[in-house]
Design brief:
Elements (H helix, E strand, L loop, with lengths): L15 E5 L2 E4 L4 E4 L2 H4 L8 H11 L13 H12 L9 E5 L2 H18 L7 E6 L7 H6 L3 H4 L10 E4 L3 H4 L6 H19 L4 E6 L2 E2 L6 E2 L4 H12 L2 E5 L23 E4 L1 H4 L6 E5 L1 H8 L15 H16 L2 H20 L5 E7 L2 E6 L15 H11 L2 E2 L1 E3 L9 E5 L7 H19 L1
Parallel strand pairs: 3-15, 5-6, 5-7, 7-10, 10-11
Antiparallel strand pairs: 1-2, 2-3, 4-12, 8-9, 11-12, 13-14, 14-17, 16-17
Helix pairs in contact: 2-12, 3-12, 4-11, 8-9, 13-15, 14-15
């Protein structure tokens, strides 16, 4: 019996003992093809020798020294790497390291506040985010998130955050509305909300470039983020890009925002940064933000004990080098096409699949009871959970979600295979996902 406090206190879970490429192996010897890397975490599979070697080497020299006094070589090299690969505009930015995506979001919100204070605009305290969205489970990140189900129990304890609609074409795009018109209509909600709140009171807008858990994997309509950037610039509002799930190569470019042709003021990243080998997250600040701090107080008003942990940074740096050395972004784009066309062929006409969406190796099927009305199955059916079990019984791990438990969205099956997958593994994932959906909806 495990001593770990499990999410479900009664669940009997298999004990995982080993990883082999894209496979997880439990104590009974059962092998599971990992089609989601947890929640889009394990981008390099489960037994990467280069990362293991880098982590071991680092432990043999120095693991930890407090960031109040010291930096370390892997932390600096990783920051150089991230800044050099950031979408245009980050210039001479800087990076801070944290332990999880939620912590990174908290740090990003505080950094936005610090920026405005350093700039002599203390009245800028308001945050605007989107719904549906998910930005983490700590109280600040939960408040920013537009995830009805996860917010509900903690609602009275959450700071006030304004929400506009996330761009979700399957349900929000009008019939006969062009993609461009839809993108503008959605983005202009931000301008309307800034004006309604008073532009001088708004600190930041928070959005994922490609939405993860709350909407499956939802890219923005073309032109959406260009308009968002314009609006933020017009009103002096910072844009915080949450790349915790969609970043680090998952969508075919290191940062998902690169494909939108704009840069963020503050970027958060986590999952794929350590690729599951290290629990590490980061916040990258653009030069504008850094300059305000350097010409103001000159120091960061945030700190955690394990920031810039040398072993975590060495592991993440090795993950980035693997992506480059093995040309894995190209692999993501190639395998992504195979995954997309496999899903469209197998499920495009399925009576209970309403939408298939994604980018790179980040794809989702939204399952609905009625394709014509887009009505979801009754939540009591726990279809998302059943779809996960059905796939697992067939030896494949997927990431299920009941949308935001808002009763509006259907159940999702999210697929985020490792970048090192073979074509045959991608085909097998598609086959099992299609079989599971058919089995559980008929
Ligand atoms: N932001 C996004 C977009 C996420 O998907 C997540 C995790 N699913 C988080 C933040 C929070 O990250 P963590 O679970 O590491 O705290």
């Amino acid at each position: 019996m495990s001593h770990v406090l499990r999410r479900s206190l009664t669940a009997e879970q298999p004990v995982i003992v080993r990883g082999e490429g894209a496979y997880l192996i439990d104590s009974d010897g059962t092998r599971y093809l990992d089609a989601c890397g947890g929640a889009a975490v394990s981008s390099l599979g489960h037994d990467n020798a280069a990362v293991r070697a880098a982590v071991t080497r680092q432990m043999e020299t120095i693991s930890y020294a407090h960031t109040g006094l010291f930096t370390n070589e892997p932390a600096e090299a990783l920051a150089d790497y991230l800044i050099a690969h950031a979408p245009d505009g980050t210039g001479d930015g800087r990076v801070m390291y944290l332990g999880s995506g939620s912590e990174a979001m908290e740090a990003a919100l505080k950094l936005a506040r610090q920026y405005h204070l350093e700039n002599g605009q203390p009245e800028r305290t308001r945050l605007i985010a989107r719904a549906p969205s998910y930005h983490g489970n700590t109280l600040g990140a939960l408040a920013v998130g537009g995830h009805a189900g996860r917010r509900a129990p903690f609602q009275p304890m959450l700071i006030g955050v304004d929400h506009i609609d996330a761009a979700y074409p399957y349900r929000l795009r009008h019939e006969n509305e062009s993609e461009t018109a839809f993108a503008l209509r959605m983005a202009n909600q931000l301008e309307d909300r800034i004006k309604a709140l008073g532009p001088e009171t708004v600190a930041a807008f928070i959005a994922e470039p490609v939405v993860g858990a709350s909407l499956g994997s939802q890219p923005a309509p073309a032109g959406y983020f260009k308009r968002i950037r314009e609006i933020c610039d017009t009103y002096g509002v910072l844009y915080i890009a949450d790349e915790v799930m969609c970043g680090m190569g998952r969508t075919g470019s290191l940062f998902a925002l690169e494909q939108e042709g704009i840069a963020a003021d503050i970027t958060t990243m986590a999952k794929g940064l350590g690729a599951g080998y290290m629990p590490i997250a980061a916040v990258m600040a653009s030069q504008t933000v850094v300059d305000a701090i350097l010409s103001g107080s000159g120091r960061l008003w945030n700190g955690h004990t394990y920031m810039s942990h040398a072993v975590a940074c060495a592991g993440a740096l090795a993950v980035m080098h693997e992506i480059d050395d093995r040309d894995l972004l190209k692999q993501v784009r190639t395998l992504g096409k195979r995954l997309e066309s496999g899903l469209r062929d197998a499920l495009g006409q399925h009576p209970h699949v309403g939408d298939i969406r994604g980018r790179g190796l980040f794809w989702t099927a939204e399952v609905v009871e009625d394709r014509a009305s887009k009505a979801p199955f009754d939540a009591k059916r726990n279809l998302a959970g059943r779809l996960q079990t059905a796939a697992m019984e067939r030896g494949v791990i997927t990431y299920p979600s009941q949308g935001c438990a808002d009763g509006v969205q259907g159940d999702h099956v999210l697929i985020a295979p490792c970048f090192t997958s073979t074509g045959a593994e991608i085909d097998r994932i598609v086959e099992v996902v299609a079989e599971s959906i058919t089995a559980e909806t008929s």
